[in-house]
Every structure is written in C-alpha cells, then in structure tokens.
Amino acid sequence: MVELVTEYFEDRLPVEDRLRFEQHIAVCGPCHAYLRQMRDTMRVTGELREESLSDEARDALLTAFRAWGGRQR
Amino acid sequence: MGRTAALRAYKFLCEGATGVLSGFTWPVGDWVVVEGELVPSRRGVHACRPRDLAYWLDEELWEVGLDGEVHELDRLVVARAGRLVQRIDAWTPRVAEELAHVAVDRRRDLPGLVEDAELWSWDPPSAAYMAAHALGCAARDQGEDYTAAFEGERAWQGAWLADRLRLTR
C-alpha cells in the first residue's frame, strides 16, 4: 500500500490502476486515513521555509545533522 | 464521447470540503474550471450520480453543478467545470451507519457477511462494499457474473441513499 500511494502521488499508475486504487481508498478506512495523513504531511512540509524555523530549532537540527554525518564517516 | 451540458451531480469530500484523493479544498459556490484534456482520475472535476454514491462515501456530501464537457463513466462523472452548490446536511454519521446495516441486513444470508461487517466494526463504506462483494461472490459461485451482481447491489445502495437523503438528479 505504501508503494502504491507513492506511485499514485507521483502519477506513475495507469488510469485503470488509479481508478481501482481510488475505489479501494473509498471503502477501506485504514487506507483512507493513511492517504489523508500523507496528504497532510506533504502539505505541511511543503509550507516549511528556513526562515519559519526558530533559532533554537535550527541550531538543534544542525547539531543533529553534524553528529549524524560524523557517525557515518 | 463527452457532451456539453449543465447538470446536477454529487460529490463526497472529507471534512472541510477537501478531496481525499486530490487534496483540493473546494471553494463553495465558485466555479472550478479544468484546462486540458479530461482524463478520469487524472484531470477533471469528478462527481457522481445517485447510482454511484455508494462507491465514494466520505464525511461530507455536496450537491455540485457541472458544466461544459461532461463524460459519464461507469462509476463516476468527469466534467470540465464544477462548483459546490450546497452541502447535503442529511448525510450524517447516523445515516452512514444506517446504510451499513441496511446493506448488510438485506444480504445477511450470504456466508460470512455479518461476521466480516462486525470485524470491521460496521464501518459504513466497508460494510456496504462487503455486502456487494459477497453478493458478487455468490453469483460467481453459481456460474453468474460477479460484476453484474456487484454493480447491481451498489446501484441499489445508491438508490437507497438517494431516497433516504431525498436527492434528485
């Protein structure tokens, strides 16, 4: 299902499969909720800008990324 | 082939008049016009006729006006332009539950149907689908056509909803 949702959002499914997918979403509560959550996540993350971060949040993220990079080396 | 006409149809949406598939939040009353070739599920204003209602259940039901090129397909309508006319306030969680029970009770003799509905906590879209699916399976077991039985039951559910909600085409 996760792969199908990704392919659906990226418009990589043929029309027949898209229609079958959409009809499944309409009758399956868990899949309906998952799709909705993915849409909400995409919308919210799409609205994030560097300037929308507080200084504290930016510093915390940079610290985390630097530590992550250091572990990978 | 499409045709040019103005007609009334219906549209199920999530809370806030938002399409779960498109993510598009509909403005109430304003026409939304789509450019380019109309392609089902990809491009166009998607709506349903009363007989299609059971396929697309969601939180909110709206009456929509369609205009311009309109393609009537098996389970939906795709149009060049559409607008939300009014919300159907009669569509409530209580009516949705009612549909679930009516749909299953009508076919309760089919093996496993009531148990499946209980397993899914009588979730209305699931229960209505399972009733039609069970009927289709029973038809197939008797050498008949699954799709005809399934679609016939979905059409019955749509007609029941249209009557219950006093919808007209």
Concise account of the structure shown:
The complex is a heterodimer of chains A (73) and B (169). In chain A, helix 2 packs across helix 3. Chain A has helices at 2-9, 15-27, 29-46, 55-72.
Structure description:
The complex is a heterodimer of chains A (73) and B (169). In chain A, helix 2 (15-27) crosses helix 3. Chain A has helices spanning 2-9, 15-27, 29-46, 55-72. Chain A has one domain (2-72). The mean pLDDT of chain A is 84. With 73 residues, chain A is mainly α. Chain B folds into 2 domains: 3-87, no CATH class; 93-164. Chain B has helices at residues 93-106, 113-119, 124-141, 146-164, and strands at residues 3-4, 7-13, 32-33, 45-47, 60-72, 77-87. In chain B, strands 1, 2, 3, 4, 5 and 6 form a 6-stranded antiparallel β-sheet that branches. Chain B starts with a strand and ends in a 5-residue tail after the last helix. The relative contact order of chain B is 0.17. The chains are: A mainly alpha (73), B alpha+beta (169). At the A-B interface, helix 2 and helix 3 of A face helix 3 of B.
Class computed from helices, strands and strand pairing of chain A: mainly alpha
* Count of separate DSSP helical elements of chain A: 4
In which range does the helix fraction of chain A lie? over 70%
The gross shape of chain B turns out to be globular
Terminal Cα span of chain B: 21 Å
Secondary-structure map:
The complex is a heterodimer of chains A (73) and B (169).
Chain A: H1 2-9, H2 15-27, H3 29-46, H4 55-72
Helix pairs in contact in A: 2-3
Chain B: E1 3-4, E2 7-13, E3 32-33, E4 45-47, E5 60-72, E6 77-87, H1 93-106, H2 113-119, H3 124-141, H4 146-164
Antiparallel strand pairs in B: 1-5, 2-5, 3-6, 4-6, 5-6
Helix pairs in contact in B: 1-3, 3-4
